[in-house]
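Exercise 7.
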Amino acid sequence: MKYWLGFVLAGFMASAWAAQVEVVDAWVREAPPNAPMMAGYLTLRNPGREAVVLMDARSPQFKKVEIHRSSIENGMARMEKQQKVELPAGGEIRFHPGGYHLMLMYPVKRLRGGDRVRLELILDGGERLEVVAPVRRDHGGMGHPH
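Solution. The predicted structure, written as tokens, is:
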């Protein structure tokens, strides 16, 4: 599922690079009942000529959203909050289990497979990308919830 995103700025020409950012395959992993956190995944593509920076993310369905990155260092799993993620010109960044992901904290109500999560991705320059991601069960992945 693709979401083409464009912006219109009142009285000004829209930023050419932001209009080209594409969000592909957005989804949220279903969590057990009463789980305080869920993880969101997607791919950001930037066919433009300038880098774009993802600065923040929000959702009205969660009290808090953070950008995180999971990794394995010296055999130990780590997860770090990211202040920003740069999307290179002509490139893409994949948010996936075991890598970058959106940490969705403290859901307002329980979400199950088939529900939809509204996300707002905030880019440098203040542009906002509106994304709807289905909640689904994930039977693959890295064997952990992030």
